[in-house]
Design goal:
Number of domains: 1
Shape: elongated
Largest sheet: 3 strands, antiparallel
Strand order of the largest sheet: 1-5-2
CATH class: Alpha Beta
Helix content: 25-40%
Mean pLDDT: 92
Low-confidence stretches: none
Structural class: alpha+beta
Order of helices and strands: EHHHEEEE
Strand content: 25-35%
CATH superfamily: Ribosomal protein L22/L17
Length: about 120
């Protein structure tokens, strides 16, 4: 079994929104997952697709992968973790300031293939 991973860090999207997209492709074959992400209208699908393509490219650049097709890979695991939050302030009532958190996330993808 051949495995490869890719990590996309500091993506300026809320982790909750990206996790919704990640749930759609977990466990699927890579071709089907890329197709799903490409035509999905959610904003989180673009960075997830980019990370998935990177993981497949990492797998193909290994020495042992010279005989493999990209169609043989599937998404073994995908996780979305919270990154640092930028803090910004908006004017609030009676001269106060109200806090706004601009969240970010880290996307980790592992693709694998069955032993040939």
């Amino acid at each position: 079994m051949l495995e490869a991973r890719a990590v996309a860090k500091y993506i300026r999207l809320s982790p909750r929104k990206v996790r919704m997209v990640a749930e759609l492709v977990r466990g699927k074959p890579v071709e089907e997952a890329i197709n799903t992400l490409h035509f999905l209208t959610k904003k989180g699908s673009k960075p997830v697709e980019k990370a998935l393509r990177s993981a497949v490219a990492n797998a193909m650049n290994r020495e042992a992968a010279s005989k493999l097709n990209p169609e043989n890979f599937y998404v073994k695991s995908i996780s979305v973790d919270q990154g640092p939050s930028m803090r910004r302030y908006n004017p609030g009532p009676m001269g106060r300031a109200s806090l706004i958190k601009k969240r970010s996330c880290h996307i980790s993808i592992v693709v694998a293939t069955d032993a040939v």
